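Lab notebook: predicted structure, single chain.

Context: the supervisor wants predicted structures on file for every construct in the current expression panel, including those that have not yet been purified. This is the next one on the list. No modifications to the sequence; it matches the entry in the shared construct table.
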Amino acid sequence: MAFKTDIEIAREAKKKPIMEIGSKLGIPSEHLLPYGHDKAKVSQEFIKSLAGKPDGKLILVTAINPTPAGEGKTTTTVGLGDGLNRIGKKAVVCIREASLGPNFGMKGGAAGGGMAQVVPMEEMNLHFTGDFHAITSAHNLLSAMIDNHIYWGNDLDIDERRIVWRRVMDMNDRALRDIVVSLGGVSNGFPRQTGFDITVASEVMAILCLSNDLEDLQKRLGDIVVAYTRAKTPIYARDIKADGAMTVLLKDAMQPNLVQTLENNPAFVHGGPFANIAHGCNSVIATKTALKLGEYVVTEAGFGADLGAEKFFDIKCRKAGLKPSAAVIVATVRAMKMNGGVAKADLGAENVEAVKKGCPNLGRHIGNVKGFGVPVVVAINHFYSDTDAEIAAVKAYVAEQGAEAILCKHWALGSEGIEELAKKVVQMAEAPSNFAPLYPDDMPLFKKLETIAKRIYHADEVIADKAIRDQLKTWEAAGYGHLPICVAKTQYSFTTDPTVRGAPTGHSVPVREVRLSAGAGFVVAICGEIMTMPGLPKVPSAEVIRLNAEGNVEGLF
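Prediction complete. Output recorded below exactly as produced.
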């Protein structure tokens, strides 16, 4: 059976002018700053005017651990937003922006798929409104000012061996992970070892996504620890006098982007930290604005619930004072079969036993999300190859876990195919939420890391050498002990080994490095072999992305 590609479907969308989409939410046209006819930023002035309004209900969409079979988390997020609007609720979708790196690499874009997409798809997956470029520029301005300060005499006595601020770019480029800068003689500065991370791993990205307004943004930027002196005292971005100029570069990027779904419902697309190496949620300012404008806000958290949902609950909700009303865990029959040991090439054949064997991965996520006090429903994202017996096996397994699984056909049918899930979400959201983060603020940093590893990953222990434990204690003594932990690890497994599927127990979580994100307000623990600068695969998507004879983009997905 031949299907249209996502980009073909998106190109045929009957989009409405963005001013019309804004008017649905009560946003006056003078407070929409248009980028063309189909996307706009919402003014800070209008956002501030919403302060006294009541909040709608916040719905999180998360997923099982990703597999090459695909799960469709963003597709389900968009579909559920359309489905809620279809049953008469005023719903707004809040998702992240796409990073160029994975677009041209292996993962693809972040606009949904099939009949559940946000548009304009091409612009969203490419430069969009320039937010990521602004973040990259602000981050690298700080980098340049650090090296410039040292070049002109180093009045702050920065220890060049203890500069912790790396550079970033929004592309997958393994050659830049570990480099030496300032070679070429006296006029180029003092040579030192450093490297690049991908923009979505930048602390500036995290800060933009966690800030409430421009004042909060500048304070957080100033709080960034960029280096240490020879006496090991911290040097902040405000000491370099970079925070003001960085804020200027980010002034427009701080304003949420309004677009629309294929069914002309409003969607905010703003911010884009990855969940495997950062905190994996769209911006607080977009989410809070949407909650003031809609009855229901459907948002997503990156990758599986062990990363995305945990960070959404423990970092974003904790810091922003958000209280989610319900959570949806996306799963597919195909992914259950892969977790049950079936090769990707054989997923088309019915295999009920493999489905049953793979379901414990889903069960682990159900239990974990319930542990936060949030009611859970499972969305089975339907594929044409799924059989009735396989679907029944997933539903039966989920019922045994004390939850309900609902078959969703939004990819093929749009909102019509997800009505049942929308009604279930409304039913769950009407009950009071008992949400609570996993650990208290005052728990020691290493104990927080152990709590995540044992309760979410079901590991036996965290392995960290003395230098890492001592570093955490030093940060506690400096007043950073109240910060949450952001674990950077593989998204493919509960372990730090991407090949281990299912619901493993008895494993260890090795911590390779810890980084203080004082401005963002969390401590990053880098575990296993995870890289903060990804590489391209052997055959990157960039090889097939091109302009066709009509001047349209082809190859994006």
